[in-house]
Amino acid sequence: MVLCPECDTNLDLQEDEVDEGEVISCPECGTDFEVVTTSPLELKAMEEGYVEEEEEEEAEDGDYS
Ligand SMILES: [Zn+2]
To answer: I want to staple 29 with a disulfide (CB 3.0 to 4.6 A). Which of 7, 42, 59, 63 is the partner?
Structure first.
């Protein structure tokens, strides 16, 4: 039994039903997870479009001349 790391929903995955690198979506919270390893089955949240880029604004603030 594999639980969603985000909302603890039972994702109902079997180790032999998924491949490493496969992306699983939680039906409950919609989070996408990549299968890191299959034995033991380990998931990693993708967090697409959720990347923090706070330090980018300072880059092009200088003088262009
Ligand atoms: Zn979930």
So the answer is: 7
pTM exceeding the 0.70 threshold for the entire prediction: no
Q: Which of 43, 46, 6 is nearest to 27 (CA)?
A: 6
Residue 46's beta-bridge partner residues?
A: none
Report CA(53)–ligand 1 centroid distance (Å).
25
For residue 65, give the amino acid letter.
Answer: S
- Ion ligand 1 residues within 5 Å by Cβ: 4, 6-7, 9, 26, 28-29
Name the β-bridge partners of 38: 41
Structure token digits, residue 63: 């003088």
